[in-house]
Amino acid sequence: MAALASTLSLNPHNTTTRNKEYQQNHGSSVVEEIKGLIRVHKDGHIERPQVVPCVTSSALNPELNVTSTDMVIDNVTNTWARFYLPNLHHHNDNKIPLLVYFHGGGFCIGSAAWSCYHDFLAKLSAEVGCMVMSVNYRLAPENPLPAPYDDGMKALTWVKQQFLYECDDSEWWTKKCNISSVFLGGDSAGANIAYNVAIRVSESESLRPLKLKGLVLIQPFFGGEVRTASEKSMAESPGSALNLAASDAYWRLALPRGADRDHPWCNPMVGKLKSLLVPTLVCISEMDILKDRNLELCDALAREGVRVEYTVFKGVGHAFQILSKSHISKCTTYQMMSCLKSFIMPHL
């Protein structure tokens, strides 16, 4: 429960040199590949090129007025979290909400230390005025589903323990955080994790006095065996970071052996929708292959009595808020942050 130990590496395990040596020694043994992102060999060896640099928690723009620190959740599984605390002088002694956030990457790539997430979540913390806890969970295919869901629950249990036991290492954030105003959120696969963790929380009372007040789903990553219209029409959309072939490959790597895309972790529309008892905000991208699935989820939740708010952001694709540097993406990212602020703050 201390600050991140030096023995836990923030960087990907593989290096370009090691990958080249492996390929020279083993030849062509690739059984699954998403070009430039992940390559899986038949003997289980995984290659993940470092497509995004990892940064330390201190790598922040001082103008944001945000403090960031890494903390260990579980040494055994190497699960840790990066915290972002805004220095909001006008709040005085008022405690602020906590957003527990899960990064995207198809369950197979990504890190809470990726520079794009570090920058986005630091800005989000400052703009919304909430504390953000960015969870670094285990990745597939080494750790297929439900491992990330387990890590999400473990992260919430850890938060509860920090408050109940008044841990000295966590006082810097627990004294400023409202445990009765906790939100779960994430983008892409991270939104899928947030959704499934929220279902577990709704079915359990073990996290009290921690209280889940809402769910934030940004371009939630779901699928199904039957294609939607947006999956067919935008399978190779140049304006989006996710195409249909990559989506299918992520699911093959992440789902339990033998499962198809109609497994409920991939397709929550199969059978009866599981109970979700908290207000939900869904952020959808117009040029995303997931657009129709996201809209279907909103309709289904509303029919079950869940209070759902959603916005379709025009002219942007999947993960625009972290990967695109275009003018429209930057402007739309701040629009998205404004939506999150309006959703989170009224629940205080």
From TrEMBL:
Q: Where is this region: Disordered?
A: 1-26
Polar residues bias: where?
1-17
Quote the Pfam families the UniProt record gives: Abhydrolase_3
Residues annotated as signal peptide: none
Highest taxon of the source?
A: Eukaryota
Q: Which residues form the Alpha/beta hydrolase fold-3 domain?
A: 99-321
Q: What's the family?
A: Belongs to the 'GDXG' lipolytic enzyme family.
Its protein name is: Alpha/beta hydrolase fold-3 domain-containing protein
UniProt source species = Stylosanthes scabra
